């Protein structure tokens, strides 16, 4: 059996003959040749000569061969499932029993979902659309804080790539860049006896999207649109998974997450917003910050109200 990750790694380093490769992987030369053709189909540019094979360039795809060598995680992404096209990475992880830490990634989603069944636009090869499965048991009480841990981890990573831009967290589940929506989270939890037994963290981030990719949705933006350059999706994905793993384990260990990390980066902090439920404005007030349990603190006239996630949306 050819270890495809190792195979690609070697061919990126230098030229290898078919004979050498057959020997290294303990397979026939025709198996090597077949694998070379498969890589070409994936989009690898391979120089083939009498002396052997050498990878000249790699496809901009989130395939295992490209992402695995960049992963610094110990556990998240150890089981990595890649799709060129899928309905929704969240739905896929919910459809069966997968190992803890499984990551599902797709180049495009035909039925990418936001909250309340809304559609998440997922153009091919432009963004990051992935879901992480986590199975540690946790009291239900911690769920909203856990969501903030994920949100903050992705935010922190993206901040490193958007130094001079205005990156903000829109409570409860979005990241905004220069006042437009850059990323969204869809967190599905399975609960048994007041304990969370399974969490599927779905993340959608607009990376190299052009304006035309958003079908006239003018609240949306991408890293490319705002920063005028293209970004390496593979590296971003690996960095995000690393940060999520670090923060998640710290949170599991200590049960502590400083909500101030999120609060200080909140979109519309100190501004007047409307709380909308099923299209109706149910409250209007000033965002004062975040409560320690992850709820939003709203000052309505002279009264403080705590807003819990549920079916609510925050609007200006
Ligand atoms: P809420 O405050 O309730 O989260 P929201 O408008 O952000 O409100 P979500 O359900 O979180 O709604 O996200 C889905 C919404 O995101 C869709 O209704 C659509 O307006 C928008 N959307 C869909 N695809 C994208 C995308 N690729 N980038 C940015 N925004 C998108
Ligand atoms: C939102 O803003 O409401 C959340 C959007 C979440 C989109 C991601 S893309 C990967 C994963 N699969 C889905 O179907 N949704 C999430």
Summarize the structure in words.
It is a single chain. The chain has 9 helices and 15 strands. Helix 5 links the parallel strand 3 and strand 4. 35% of the residues are buried. Strands 3, 4, 5, 6, 7, 8, 9 and 10 form an 8-stranded mixed sheet that branches. The chain has a 5-stranded antiparallel sheet with strand order 14-13-12-11-15. A two-stranded antiparallel sheet has the order 1-2. By secondary structure, it is α+β, with helices and mostly antiparallel strands. Helix 2 crosses helix 3. The longest helix is centred in the C-terminal third of the chain and has 22 residues. The structure holds adenosine-5'-triphosphate and biotin.
Gyration radius over CA:
22 Å
Major β-sheet, in short? 8 strands, mixed
Heteromolecules bound: adenosine-5'-triphosphate, biotin
Helix content: 25-40%
How far is it from the N-terminal to the C-terminal residue, by CA? 57 Å
Please indicate the percent range of residues in DSSP E strands (runs of 2 or more). Answer: 25-35%
Order of helices and strands: HHHEEHEHEEEHEEEEHHHEEEEE
Which blocks of ≥5 consecutive residues have pLDDT under 50?
none
Keywords:
single chain, 316 residues, alpha+beta, eight-stranded mixed sheet, five-stranded antiparallel sheet, 9 helices, 15 strands, 29% helix, binds adenosine-5'-triphosphate, binds biotin
């Amino acid at each position: 059996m050819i270890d495809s990750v190792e195979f690609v790694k070697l061919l990126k380093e230098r030229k290898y003959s078919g004979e050498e490769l057959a020997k290294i992987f303990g397979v026939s030369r025709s198996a090597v040749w077949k694998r070379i053709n498969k890589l070409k189909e994936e989009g690898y540019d391979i120089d083939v000569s009498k002396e052997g094979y050498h990878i000249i360039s790699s496809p901009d795809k989130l395939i295992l061969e490209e992402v695995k060598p960049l992963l610094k995680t110990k556990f998240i992404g150890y089981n990595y499932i890649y799709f060129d096209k899928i309905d929704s990475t969240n739905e896929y992880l919910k459809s069966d029993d997968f190992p803890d830490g499984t990551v599902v990634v797709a180049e495009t989603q035909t039925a990418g979902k936001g909250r309340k069944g809304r559609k998440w636009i997922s153009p091919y090869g432009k963004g990051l659309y992935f879901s992480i499965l986590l199975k540690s048991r946790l009291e239900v009480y911690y769920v909203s804080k856990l969501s903030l841990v994920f949100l903050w981890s992705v935010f922190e990573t993206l901040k490193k790539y958007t130094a001079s831009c205005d990156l903000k967290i829109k409570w409860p589940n979005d990241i905004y860049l220069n006042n437009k929506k850059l990323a969204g989270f869809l967190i599905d939890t399975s609960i048994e006896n007041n304990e969370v037994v399974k969490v599927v963290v779905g993340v959608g981030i607009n990376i190299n999207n052009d304006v035309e990719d958003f079908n006239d949705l003018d609240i949306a933006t991408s890293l490319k649109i705002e920063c005028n350059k293209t970004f390496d999706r593979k590296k971003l994905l690996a960095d995000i998974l690393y940060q999520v793993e670090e923060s998640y384990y710290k949170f599991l260990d200590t049960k502590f997450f400083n909500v101030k990390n999120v609060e200080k980066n909140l979109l519309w902090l100190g501004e007047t917003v409307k709380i909308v439920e099923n299209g109706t404005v149910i409250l209007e007030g000033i965002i004062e910050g975040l409560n320690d349990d992850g709820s939003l603190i709203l000052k309505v006239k002279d009264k403080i109200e705590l807003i819990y996630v549920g079916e609510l949306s925050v609007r200006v």
